[in-house]
Amino acid sequence: MLHIVVCIKQVPDSREIRIDPVNNTLIRQGVPSIVNFYDMHGLEAALQIKDQYGARVTVVTMGPPPAEKALKECISLGADEAVLVTDRGFAGADTLATSYVVAKTIQKAAETWGPVDLVFCGKQTLDGDTGQVGPGIACRLDLEQLTYVVKVEEVDPVNRTIKVHRALEDGVEVVRTKMPALITALKEMNKVRRATLPGMIRAARYKPIVWTTADFPDIDRSKIGLKGSPTIVAKTWVPEPRKIDCTFLEDDDPKRLAEKLGEALWEKELPKKMGWVS
Amino acid sequence: MSRQEEHMPDWSEYRGVMIYVEQRDGVAKNVSWQLLGEGRKLADKLGDAPLMAAVFGQDVEHLAKEAIYYGAEKVYLCEAEELRHYRTRPYSRLMLDLIREVKPEIVLFGATATGRDLAGAIATHLPTGLTADTTELDVEPPPSRLLLASRPAFSEKMMATILCKQYRPQMATARAGVFAALPRDPSRTGEIIRIENQMSESEIAAEVLEFISHTGKVNLEEAEVIVAGGRGLGGPEPFAMLKELADALGGVVGASRAAVDAGWISHDHQVGQTGHTVRPKLYIAAGISGAVQHTVGMANSELIVAINKDPNAPIFQFAHYGIVGDLFKIIPALTEEVKRRRTLFNVEAPKSESAAATEAAATAAANSTEAENSKNSTELMNSSKSAESGG
Question: Of A158, B168, B298, B324, which residue is the least packed, with the fewest Cβ within 10 Å?
Fold first, then answer.
């Protein structure tokens, strides 16, 4: 049977974060935590493979203890096991340090439940917004790397291949590769299912498995958390909001109104900016 | 902020700025030339730092020359059948070996799907720090030579400057359309150094079976003009009207989340938090109220025009020019006005990116006798080791 690991992250809903206008700091209070929604599309893709071919689905997350709630949500949708890897030492991790710990976790999941065939991640997280952890994990575990996937067209458990569609800026690339592979999911990939009643009951009773650094005897402490993170945030600032005084153009006749706008755009040297004239 | 007291390792072996030139079928992405433009500034500020480019693919020699015309002093060129399509393993292996050999202090990639895919793999292998999606780049002058990589954070509400002090090279991906390319100058000269491909087909599992190019070619991030529609359009049909205006301006059609969620237009047109972040030279918002979800994705456009029937719509706070009125009357009139002006001022039709690139390629081919030192440097990468995969 296929073993699929889905990596998720509980994130503050960055759309809800506001800036304190007085001291220019982030107001995190009252900001809800959500499962990074790209990750849920990865979970759904894994569950669809499970429905079609049969698979064991293990969900893993690195984060503080409240992330258990996110794991239970995944169990309610049909994941088989859920692992929280948590340790104070992980705090302050950038993408390099994060991919190290998550890769270690996937290795341990493989030792516990069998070799891993597929790993799903979201395309990126809403808070970090980098898209770098997926490639980082693929690199560390020597997995085939399939980023920005919109469709899993075919899984061949016998020949151990997978065929996917990747959405790039200028088109869709159809690529086939061998498993084990890591896929990063876009939201267009699928529609995330709702929990069933038995699923919810199972989730309510389920205790996520918790691993800490003590469960990883060979972990290299110089590679985790702040210490294992090459990048540091030197400063943050709130960009000056662009103060724009909107010039309203008025005319009862649409044609004359269009002429006024045309004139304004040409005055702003649109043809030159566009390279229509040299 | 004084950093004198901090211990900085000796990085004197690492010199120069390297730009990864992304291409498909021999046509480079504009962001590559934009990064060469920005890289030129960084290299000049560092002083003794060469500006380098990496061009990988098949039949891409003309792009190595183009890279020189756009400011590169040295171009590392690798042509091989295995590199015809981008694939993570052969490209990352090649780039990794090149970085280890040449030791640039800064490496920049476009923050495109391919750029992020490649940079993410390389940064982990090296290992080094990688800053995603930067919109401002600067360097501290010697002796620190630190890259100050700044990027928007928390849905563009904040900016953060990120440093990588203890590892080299310093790497970043950078957004398309933010930095300015140098004017293309075929009189610039530089050195093209050929390098060997590192992986044979038998070592590469991934097969690119097909590439389905976007019909209508919606590339919002590289578009110079976007005409976007929202809830005020009332249905899918009026997007045809926006398309006519976009065509007249040489631009593309965008949309708000409301229009996409209503199913009027596909998601690849969506501008905003869950869509694309754009910075065109001209952004026309028609029937878009201006929810934060939308404005975070377009507020940095150079020139913004808003057309809305509600004079209190927040979109007007972001617009340079506002028209309160019926977009169904104004848009067609504006289309006619643009056509009239462009005929009047004898302005030729705008070139698409690919047309411009083809022309550039033809020019490059015609100029192929120009003096560039193209030398074969097989020794450069013979001693490569297989990429590490351990944690």
Answer: A158
